[in-house]
Amino acid sequence: MDNLVNILYIIAFALFIYGLMGLTGPKTAVRGNQIAAVGMALAVVATFISIRHTNNWILIVAGLVVGVALGVPPARFTKMTAMPQLVAAFNGVGGGTVALIAWSEFLDTQGFSRIPEQPTVHIVIASLFAAVIGSISFWGSVIAFGKLQEILPGKPIGIGKLQQPLNILLFAGAVASAIVIGVGATGDGVSGWWMVLLLVLAAILGLMVVLPIGGADMPVVISLLNALTGLSAAAAGLALNNTAMIVAGMIVGASGTILTNLMAKAMNRSIPAIVAGGFGGGGAVASAGDGEQKQAKATSAADAAIQMAYANQVIVVPGYGMAVAQAQHAVKEMASLLEAKGVEVKYAIHPVAGRMPGHMNVLLAEAEVSYDAMKEMDDINGEFGRTDVALVIGANDVTNPAAREDAASPIYGMPVLNVDQAKSVIVLKRSMNSGFAGIDNPLFYSDHTSMLFGDAKKSVGAVTEELKAL
Questions:
Q1: Own/partner pairs for 150-154, CB < 8 Å, 24+ apart?
Q2: Rounded CA gap, 243 and 435, in Å?
Q3: Broadest EC class (predicted)?
Q4: DSSP states of 197-263 as a string?
Q5: What is the total count of domains within the chain?
Q6: Mind giving me the DSSP string for 56-70?
Q7: Are residues 369 and 438 in the same domain?
């Protein structure tokens, strides 16, 4: 039976890796997800076989029923526009589960002191690491969910210069608690209150680390928390001698770490700078450039329709505003009308547009936009110079030319879409408020830029009606 368990685990790991490979492209992502799900089902079956002599089947079945009841409905019915929140919530659940497992092991072994054959160092360290990182991931994900759901303000929430010293103090307290527990594990046990203190300090640290991080950095934060959850799961697997948790956790941790690094590079920001917080403040800025008051030029749906109908190429630049307005289907209908008139339509996707990696791709794919029409930043930036109209839908910071031209800008050096190089730019926004980075966008005041104010879905719908009349 042990050999069967190992064989099933090996097959499951192979399916995990093969499924993850499928997630590298939109055309294979669904199949990759299904393959990985089969692998997880095999891992669960293998785990059941390995614990076949347990007396806790009622609790196990009850846990499965509760998990399915809580997990399936949001996964099936959550709208694509709210997918970042769902990712943050599921990620947090994973981290919280690991923290609870570590606490349960501590209680079950009375402070690790009653582990058979005396606790080894790696078991104790792995358990405590899982407890700390899992708790940080859970509570950090709670804050990320709150900001994405707009329950909490998207701007940084901190205590100024005391923020980092407080975080260091909390981390030091958690480590000190872990040391006390580790020392007690080799003796007569240790009070459970030390474990409670460790979890509480780690929880507060998770809250305090994510609260000062603004909405502009949220895609990187989600990826980082995902990596932490994976590492904590791998550590828990070491403590429990569970091969499935080790391998799955390391896959999640490694892929999350790589993605976090790529996302940070896409924003020209270091991961420590993101964790330090303070970027992504939000709030309107009334002036633009050298203190000079500039006036944006408004346009109408009819004028926008005429410009695009007689263009050779239109590039649509989606942003979070499109997601909030749920305008992806309206955009697809508008693009179809343009293509019927002989206009070539492409979509420029910035790596950190939206609130999670691939957010815009998911929304556009839901509206059945061709994958071939979605172009990554490096592939599309050279196209703007020969584009007649660039249609910006709710994107702000990722189109800000100050990132290239203004060394004093907070986002200077961040790679952006070269929207300003198009012959004409039409920006769909509710108002002149700045984006999550909290800085003004000179693009909006450019001579060749016009603003179409209003809800993105309604604005696109109005343009579509005008196109039908042409």
A1: 152/211, 153/282, 154/214, 154/215, 154/218, 154/280, 154/282, 154/436
A2: 45
A3: translocase
A4: HHHHHHHHHHHHHHTT--GGGHHHHHHHHHHHHHHHHHHHHHHHT-HHHHHHHHHHHHHHHHHHHHH
A5: 3
A6: -HHHHHHHHHHHHHH
A7: yes
**Same-domain pairing of 397 and 465:** yes
Indicate the DSSP class of residue 298.
B
Tokens of 230: 């994976």
Tell me: do 258 and 333 sit in the same domain: no
Segments forming the whole domain that contains residue 4: 1-77
Catalytic one of 217, 397, 420, 440: 397
376: three-class secondary structure by DSSP: strand
**Best CA proximity match to 149, nearest among 279, 323, 273, 269:** 323
- pTM, full prediction: 0.79
Structure tokens at 428: 């769909």
Alpha-carbon distance of 111 to 194, in angstroms, equals 10
Instruction: Locate 210 and state its tokens.
Output: 């994510």
374-376 vs 389-393, strand pairing mode: unpaired
The residue behind tokens 């499928």 is 22
Question: Chain centroid to CA 391: how far?
Answer: 25
DSSP states of 89-157? HHHHHHHHHHHHHHHHHHHHTTTTTTSTT---HHHHHHHHHHHHHHHHHHHHHHHHHHHHTTSS-SS--
Amino acid found at 21: M
Whether residue 283 lies inside any domain: the answer is: no
Average pLDDT over residues 368-373: 88
Residues 104-159 have pLDDT tens digits of: 888 777 666 555 555 567 778 888 999 999 999 999 999 989 888 878 877 778 78
* 194 has a pLDDT exceeding 90: no
User: Three-state SS for 284?
Assistant: coil
**Residue 388 designated active-site:** no
CA–CA separation, 328 and 456 (whole Å): 9
Is residue 383 within 8 A of residue 375, CB to CB? The reply is yes
